[in-house]
Write a structure and sequence with these properties.
Layout: H1 10-18, H2 30-42, E1 54-63, E2 70-82, E3 88-101, H3 104-107, E4 112-117, H4 124-132, H5 136-140, E5 147-154
Antiparallel strand pairs: 1-2, 1-4, 2-3, 3-5
């Protein structure tokens, strides 16, 4: 098996993938961000040898975490972090959130989430292709996110 990158490099790699090319991140359309996120998601990292140690999450919905409700399309990479004895300690999540002013069309999309985990019987391309056909893309392609946030958290 080829060597895998240290998890500590994942945030920088996500940033590099999202900012690749001449167009600034803030000007990308949502589907292009999704394609870049999937390229990042295909890169493997040095994780524990368990089926849920390296996962991708695609989720969207209307939330009011920091003020008035906004529609959030959240692309997440989650790594399981173990302690020195190999036991679960926490998860590290890298988020790429696209935030939209709430419109009636976005509100009608409701909430959705779908997980993919490396080292399972699922294939990343199959998962990503299926999500690429979701109705959400038709709606968000006509809109520009008011903000794109890239951040990391421990959960």
């Amino acid at each position: 098996m080829p060597s895998r990158r240290p998890i500590d490099q994942a945030r920088e790699r996500l940033h590099d993938e999202l900012c690749r090319g001449p167009q600034p991140l803030a000007e990308l359309d949502a589907y292009e961000v999704w394609l870049r996120f999937i390229r990042f998601g295909s890169q493997r990292y040095d994780t524990a040898d368990t089926p849920d140690a390296d996962g991708l999450l695609f989720q969207y919905g209307t939330y009011a975490f920091e003020g008035p409700p906004v529609f959030t399309l959240d692309l997440v990479r989650q790594f399981e972090i173990n302690d020195a004895s190999g036991e679960h300690d926490h998860y590290r999540q890298l988020h790429c959130e696209l935030l939209y002013e709430l419109t009636p069309q976005l509100r009608t999309l409701g909430h959705f989430e779908s997980w993919f985990f490396h080292d399972t019987d699922d294939e990343l391309d199959h998962w990503a292709d299926g999500l690429g056909r979701q109705d959400v893309w038709t709606t968000v392609r006509r809109l520009h996110p008011r903000e794109i946030k890239v951040y990391q958290e421990h959960v």
